[in-house]
Amino acid sequence: DLELSIAKKSREKLMKLAKESNSKVIASIHETKSTPNADEIVALIKDNSTQGDIVKFCSTVNNHQDALQIFEAANSLIGQESSHSIMGLGNGGDWVRLHAPVLEQEIVYATMMNHFRLSDKGLINVRDLRDAWALMEY
Questions:
Q1: Whole-angstrom distance, CA of residue 62 vs CA of residue 39
Q2: The domain that contains 46 carries what CATH number?
Q3: For the chain, does the N or the C end have fewer beta carbons within 10 angstroms?
Q4: pTM score, whole prediction
């Protein structure tokens, strides 16, 4: 998991080492201040598709509008030739995680924590995620 914000020279060295060891690279983008609109998220995913085997976008969700932007971006990428994982941290940030199979997410980040109200943080427990997928017949 290599942040796109890593200095170019350092990132290139790490990419080379990953390739030599036959490792896959997740190119990570973290937006901690605000959530871009859906079109900007899609552009970030597409523009950085060569920076790793999978592009991961994670944003802080401050309200339901932010969560909807993340979900809309994921929905817009269905059927596209991109390996990506989109998620949010905050209330509503788990929506894409819950519907990852139909949104064609390459990977889903889930937690082993079992705390009450994980969804307020945009997180979901692995067991709960599997149960939800079974219930929704994913």
A1: 18
A2: 3.20.20.70
A3: N
A4: 0.90
